[in-house]
Design a protein that fits this description.
Blueprint: H1 2-9, E1 22-26, E2 32-37, H2 46-54, E3 62-67, H3 79-85, E4 90-95, H4 105-112, E5 116-118, H5 123-129, H6 131-139, E6 143-151, H7 169-179, E7 184-188, H8 189-195, E8 210-214, H9 225-228, E9 235-240, H10 245-253, E10 257-261, E11 263-264, E12 267-271, H11 273-282, E13 287-292, H12 294-303, E14 308-314, E15 342-349, E16 352-358
Parallel strand pairs: 3-4, 4-5, 6-13, 6-14, 7-8, 7-13, 8-9, 9-10
Antiparallel strand pairs: 1-2, 1-3, 11-12, 14-16, 15-16
């Protein structure tokens, strides 16, 4: 099952809004017959790839699948009938499918056909694999990644605002890989004004992210690289309801989409991040990544919308009270209120350290 989970990760970024799924077929001696994973949205599911590779050897075999085989007709035929037709005797499942149109129906169909089904094997890992899918299906919200790079003393720029580059090329390359698997990249207008970023993945990944700027008063310049490339890579400006109409019209004429949202409670000029997530969920965006700056990241943590963190740390000391920190916002008053990342992974990228983990949610 853990091998199937590893296979499933290969489809990350290419299968959304579907979940990543892996499948392995073995004989009665647990010898590998075939394997497969869901490779692209609209393409054959993991079980179908594995069955096709196995041929007649599926008769009497055991299928390990990270997710309950589907039982409905979607963009592809249902998998459970294909498993039955292949003569597979046993099916071992990591976790059930939370989608309301499946949710146990695939397992029931298999058992009705005489297939022995064992479920909840490596369940925690299998559920984590589909956590973004579950959030989109059940809550209508995207999985929100928070990403930042900082020095050893927790600074994202010097006191003059210079930040190129804190981390090494290995960290920056991996950050671009992350972008290439996301449906949207979010920054604040201050980042646009200070850095004039492109916010694209280089080289391009399996997804082309919508570049989102939180810009209450529509200050994003028409000359910015974001606007200048809007015809090639989509740009969404999130503005307040009090934004100047002529500025909105100018951006729309340049090919930029402008979305006006109601403000946060107590701050009508700051578009609600929670409402933005609802809007992105309606657009079937599964993964969105917030890249800063400090105000946006702080607001995201304060709003409780962050699900996963990616932190790159370089062995450099910047110093200075005026140097910028990665996370602003209200923060917590007591250390007892501070959160620690779950499922923490720590790796080195050259002389940099990469921390990756899940943000605890209630």
């Amino acid at each position: 099952m853990r091998h199937a989970i590893q296979l499933a990760h290969r489809g990350s970024g290419a299968v959304e809004p579907n979940p990543p799924v892996g499948a392995v077929i073995v004989d009665d001696q647990l010898r590998l017959i075939s394997e497969g994973w869901h490779q692209k949205f609209g393409g054959p599911h993991a079980e179908i790839h594995a069955i096709a590779s196995a041929g007649e050897r599926t008769r009497g075999a055991t299928l390990y699948c990270t997710l309950e085989p589907c039982s409905h007709q979607g963009k592809t035929p249902p998998c459970a009938p294909a498993v039955i037709a292949a003569g597979i005797r046993n099916v071992v499942i990591g976790t059930g499918d939370p989608a309301p149109h499946v949710n146990g129906r695939g397992i029931a169909l298999l058992r009705e056909a005489g297939v022995t089904v064992t479920s909840r094997v490596c369940e925690a890992e299998a559920q984590r694999l589909i956590a973004p899918f579950r959030r989109l299906i059940l809550d209508g919200l995207p999985w929100v990644h928070a990403k930042w790079a900082m020095s050893l003393d927790g600074r994202i720029a010097t006191r003059t605002g210079d930040s190129k580059w804190i981390t090494n090329e290995h960290s920056r390359a991996q950050a671009h890989e992350l972008r290439g698997r996301c449906d949207a990249i979010i920054v604040g207008v201050s980042t646009v004004l200070a850095d004039d970023p492109q916010l694209t993945a280089r080289p391009t990944g399996p997804r082309v992210a919508t570049r989102i700027v939180l810009d209450s008063q529509v200050r994003t310049p028409l000359s910015s690289r974001l606007v200048q490339t809007a015809q090639e890579f989509p740009v969404l400006i999130v503005a307040s309801q009090s934004a100047q109409p002529h500025r909105i019209a100018a951006l729309k004429s340049a090919g930029v989409e402008v979305l006006q949202l109601a403000g946060e409670s107590g701050d009508p000029d700051r578009p609600s991040l929670r409402q933005l997530c609802v809007e992105l969920g309606k657009r079937k965006m599964t993964h969105v990544m917030i890249e800063g700056g400090a105000g946006v990241l702080g607001a995201a943590f304060d709003a409780g919308i962050v699900n996963e963190c990616h932190v790159y740390i370089a062995p450099r000391i910047i110093g200075g009270q005026a140097a910028l920190s990665p996370i602003g916002g209200k923060g917590v008053a007591q250390m007892a209120e501070a959160h620690s990342l779950l499922n923490l992974q720590v790796t080195t990228l050259g002389d940099n350290v990469y921390l990756h983990g899940d943000w605890p949610t209630s």
